[in-house]
Amino acid sequence: MAKSQWAVTASLKHITGKTGDYGASDTRFLHLWTVQPTIDNASGTAVSGGGYSPVSCSGDFPTVSTSVSQVTNNAIIQFTTRTTAAWGTVVAFSLHDTSSTGSDMYCVAALDNAVTISSGINVKIPVGSLVITES
Q: How far is CA 25 from CA 29, 58, 97, in A?
């Protein structure tokens, strides 16, 4: 997982006691990408059409494990019901502070395996399948 450029800057401000950029909202949205964006939230291609919308996932992560610097989803993360149009081949995910891809992006990571979302597939991420690691 790579922190976005925005998150790196906000973290440094927070650590050094400067005015931070972290918003008051604890809501996070999981976005899916067919082309992975860069850490400055540019050049990617977000999934669109077919009833896609990013999903709020703030309550789906337990306390971060300090021994391994990672967090894993403890609830099923389910996207909106997909219409008949395919979403394409999903290669990455990101976490944002809003449902807009133009919002502040906290992190972005490639999937271990690309997943093609075609007609008839409802997208659910099983418990324990989304692991976010800080290095």
A: 11, 10, 8
Query: What region, left, alpha or beta, does residue 16 occupy, with left being phi > 0 and alpha being psi -120 to 50 degrees?
Result: alpha
Residue type, 28: R
| CA–CA separation, 130 and 118 (whole Å) | 21
Tokens at residue 129, please? 């399948």
Place of tokens 């990455």: 92
The torsion angle over the Cα atoms of residues 28, 31, 36 and 38, rounded to 10 degrees, is: -30
Query: pLDDT tens digits, residue range 45-99?
Result: 999 888 889 998 877 776 666 666 777 888 899 988 777 788 899 999 998 888 8
Domain ranges of the chain: 2-133
Q: For the chain, what's the residue count? A: 135
